[in-house]
């Protein structure tokens, strides 16, 4: 559902928009860099299994 569809169905707004939704929630352009920093890259992966040594 796009804004143009709503305007077609409901007509124009009775007041001028002061801010857009993107401005309010802070969403940037689609080409924004969203890569994780190095310390968080494997946050959802199991750590490598280390050789366990048993001391008696």
TrEMBL record:
Source species of the chain: Echinostoma caproni
Q: Source taxonomy lineage?
A: Eukaryota, Metazoa, Spiralia, Lophotrochozoa, Platyhelminthes
In what ranges is there compositional bias, type Basic and acidic residues?
Answer: 42-56
Q: Where is this region: Disordered?
A: 26-56
The name of this protein is Secretogranin-3
Q: Which domain of life is it from?
A: Eukaryota
């Amino acid at each position: 559902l796009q804004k143009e569809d709503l305007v077609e169905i409901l007509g124009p707004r009775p007041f001028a928009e002061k801010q857009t939704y993107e401005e309010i929630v802070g969403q940037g352009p689609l080409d924004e860099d969203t890569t994780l920093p190095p310390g968080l890259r494997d946050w959802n992966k199991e750590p490598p299994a280390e050789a366990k040594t048993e001391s008696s």
